[in-house]
Design goal:
2 domains, single chain
């Protein structure tokens, strides 16, 4: 649990800055909310003014090429009547923390199974630093709908 708190404290401010600077208020961030609303009516399309040039027309309706998985994650928003809430920031924060934690836990497992030596401790420390500061999980630190789908 402590590791999760540490990851949130490290990555949440960076995500917040990214969200404010790049795409805060962009209607594209509400694409999955819109898709979920349409799914509740048995349709798989999205409004063209929401998806913009990222959508394509098929059979007189616009579709997004991302699929519906991220839209299904909006179910709690629908329950609480908050479908106009942009949760892209929170989704990306969950993604970066989960992937980062999984990688850190893998490195710690390797450390427990390895021979104890100064060189091994140094290598493990470098690997942990790399994961936190420059590993692939940091790719989610740019809050966009594109990163959310990659999770």
């Amino acid at each position: 649990m402590g590791l999760l708190v540490f990851m949130v404290l490290c990555f949440a401010p960076l995500l917040g800055i990214s969200w404010r600077l790049l795409l805060w208020g962009d209607p594209l961030n509400l694409t999955f909310n819109n898709i979920f609303g349409h799914l509740m009516h048995g349709r798989f399309d999205v409004d063209p003014q929401i998806v913009g040039w990222e959508g394509f027309m098929r059979g007189g309706r616009y579709d997004a090429y991302w699929g519906i998985f991220c839209a299904l994650l909006r179910f709690p928003l629908w329950i609480f009547h908050r479908m106009n809430t942009d949760v892209t920031l929170w989704s990306c924060l969950v993604a970066v923390c989960l992937t980062g934690m999984a990688k850190i836990r893998a490195v710690l497992l390797i450390r427990r199974q390895s021979v104890e030596s100064p060189a091994a401790r140094w290598a493990i420390g470098l690997k942990l630093g790399y994961i936190l500061l420059g590993g692939s999980a940091t790719g989610y630190l740019k809050v966009t709908i594109y990163q959310e789908v990659d999770f």
